[in-house]
Amino acid sequence: MVALPSGVLGALDSTSDRAVFRQIADQLREAIDKGRFKEGAKLPSESELVEHYGVSRMTVRNALSVLQGEGLVHSEHGKGVFVRPRPPVRRLASDRFARRHREQGKSAFTVEAEAAGSRPEVDSLEVKEERPTQDVSARLGGPRRVLARRRRYLLDGRPVEFAASFLPLDLARNTPIAQPNPGPGGIYARLEELGHRLDHFEEEIRARMPSPAEIRTLRLASGVPVIHLIRTAFDTEGRPVEVCDTVMAADAYVLAYQLPAT
Amino acid sequence: MVALPSGVLGALDSTSDRAVFRQIADQLREAIDKGRFKEGAKLPSESELVEHYGVSRMTVRNALSVLQGEGLVHSEHGKGVFVRPRPPVRRLASDRFARRHREQGKSAFTVEAEAAGSRPEVDSLEVKEERPTQDVSARLGGPRRVLARRRRYLLDGRPVEFAASFLPLDLARNTPIAQPNPGPGGIYARLEELGHRLDHFEEEIRARMPSPAEIRTLRLASGVPVIHLIRTAFDTEGRPVEVCDTVMAADAYVLAYQLPAT
DNA sequence: CCCCCCTACTCGTATAGACGAGTGGCTGAG
DNA sequence: CTCAGCCACTCGTCTATACGAGTAGGGGGG
Fold first, then answer.
1. In the CATH scheme, what is the code of domain B20-83?
2. Which CATH number fits domain A90-256: 3.40.1410.10, 3.20.20.140, 3.40.50.620, 3.40.50.700?
3. Cβ contacts of residue B62 below 8 Å, gap of 6+?
4. Distance (Å, whole) CA B156 – CA B178
5. By CB distance 3.0 to 4.6 Å, which of A93, A171, A231, B159 could disulfide with A244?
6. A45 contact to strand C (CB, 7 A limit)
7. Do B227 and B255 contact (CB within 8 A), yes or no?
8. pLDDT tens, position by position, A14-73
9. Would the CB atoms of A223 and B206 count as touching at under 8 Å?
């Protein structure tokens, strides 16, 4: 039992009607915000906090779970509770699907990651035909069956994004799009080669807390929301040719859009 | 102590190495997902769950706090724990700043809300001159002082969004922009009247858990992230003329963008 | 010198109990 | 019949204790 670093944490206000565990959480949060605990630094252990505040361990754990829910700290069994480092963010520009970017052989993800000095990976590649969900079917104009392409993206070994593309079967079957690796420029380049000249994309963005499955797939820490992006690609005839459903770890991304003012 | 509705919740698997509170959370989550507890419905009380599973109350509370952190349920002191209803979402189209929308007298928020049958409100209106944060200053090209316009938006009495606009002082001082109500079409219409013809907007989107202040301002339930949007408006000379920092309750919004494929 | 094991420390899970405070329905007095 | 007050039920907070399991470091044996 080592004494706490002096002066970092104050005392409780017993006259306050604010719950004790909230007061403790407040003090820890303030100390983190002010940099008295730096990114990645270890907080005092639960038993040290019990000692310092003179409360029971459950109260301390309650306070820590508040901070964990806010995404400020994460705990490691057997080691301690640490201030969550802000991971480097990956920035998605709205022109990343511009035609000129489809020339080179690599995928947008690979190019952007390497430009940022990170090691990109793609796994969980799955390509199969299936019945679409009601939502996907509606967005694609009601096909009974679709080609689904699922993959997970990782940066430096950390999963950051899970995406599923859906294309009408009549359009994708027996084409390079149905191959695990569709070739340079990705499926958008193949679609254009097949005569479906792309006209525009529609993107819908939501943010929410992850499902248990998403927590597993993206290895999300608690307190990290996901960004849910649904993109629909339209060809020049106004036909929807692809729906891409993407779930991203929110702490790894900034989305950037440029809009005309006209 | 009333018996549980039969068959809704199963038994624990004592051979599993999954923690008991997680198993309970799993069963409740599944029951909610499958609609056996509907939106707004009351879950069994803590003591009923204690009875049903034969565990201590803290274990049950632990399970419930998992679901609360996921945003699936919310508790009401003295009443019970309820399945969180999905609130109606407000859809923000990417053309909502198009020039043609600036003709009518009402603000975009008011028009859209009334079209959706909701009662819009704006409060916490504050207009003042101040020193910008480093980030805002950098985005605006480095002014020492800015005009800040802060306001909160509510739908049917529920706060959904808190926004702060920042404009360089030399541009906004002693203009209608410095008035609490800048007039029909909002500050973008005034900017154009002042000769700053708008060219394009840049938007950055992040998602994260709210700070305690944001929880208060937006009266957020636990397990609801926020969408943080930073928009910069540029005039035809390429000068940034406004930065708008917006924090939205994520469960109230879907952002929609349309992107050209060129 | 190296490696294994023990130990002390960490957090994870769970029990049992206590009191407080908000809610809503029932009951008895008026 | 009305209404005030009681009471049972709800969740909120806190204490005290126990054991399990992951981690890291030191010490002792090979």
1. 1.10.10.10
2. 3.40.1410.10
3. B21
4. 28
5. A231
6. yes
7. yes
8. 888 899 999 999 999 999 999 999 999 999 999 999 999 999 999 999 999 999 999 999
9. no
Higher pLDDT, A222 or B3: A222
Query: Do A65 and B70 make contact, defined as CB atoms within 8 angstroms?
Result: no
Average pLDDT of every residue of chain A? 90
Which helix (H) or strand (E) segment is A253 a member of?
A: strand A253-260
Q: In what order do the strands lie in the sheet with B120-130?
A: A90-93, A253-260, B198-208, B226-235, B240-249, B158-168, B146-155, B120-130
Which of residues 33 to 62 on B have a Cβ less than 7 angstroms from any strand C atom?
Answer: 54-59, 62
Same topology for domains A20-83 and A90-256, yes or no?
Answer: no
Distance in Å, residue B59 CA to nucleotide D18 C1': 15
pLDDT digits (tens, 9 = 90+) for A74-100: 999 999 999 999 887 888 888 888 777
**One-letter amino acid of A163:** A
Q: Find the closest chain A residue to B94 by CA distance.
A: A259
Instruction: Give A185: exposed, middle or buried? Use CB within 10 Å, 0-12, 13-18, 19+.
Output: buried
The shortest C-alpha distance from A209 to chain B (Å) reads 6
Range in A33-37, A157-161, A163-167, B84-88 with the lowest mean pLDDT: B84-88
A1: confidence class by pLDDT, cuts 50, 70, 90: very low
pLDDT value at B187 more than 60:
yes
In our burial notation (b when 16+ CB lie closer than 10 A, e otherwise), range A147-184 reads bbbebbbbbeeebbbbbebbbbbebbeebebbeeebee
Whole-angstrom Cα distance, residue B253 to residue B89? 5
Cα distance between residue B95 and residue B183, in whole Å: 21
Residue B5 CA, nucleotide C21 C1', distance (Å): 28
Lowest mean pLDDT among A109-118, B29-38, B212-221: A109-118
Nearest CA to CA, how far is A177 from chain B (Å)?
19
Q: Which two tokens stand for residue A77?
A: 């069994």
* Band of residue A4 on the pLDDT scale cut at 50, 70, 90: low
Phi, psi of B233 (to 5 degrees): -100, 135
Is the distance between the Cβ of A18 and the closest atom of strand C smaller than 7 Å?
no
pLDDT at A248: 97
Q: Which residue has the tokens 């995406």?
A: A163
Phi-psi sector, A156: left (phi>0), alpha (psi -120 to 50), beta:
left
Tokens of B237: 């000379």
Q: How far apart are CA B32 and CA B24, in angstroms?
A: 12
B22 CB-contact burial (10 Å; exposed 0-12 / middle 13-18 / buried 19+): middle
Strand ranges inside A72-197, DSSP E:
73-76, 80-83, 90-93, 120-130, 146-155, 158-168
In chain A, what are the domain boundaries? 20-83, 90-256
What is chain A's length?
A: 262
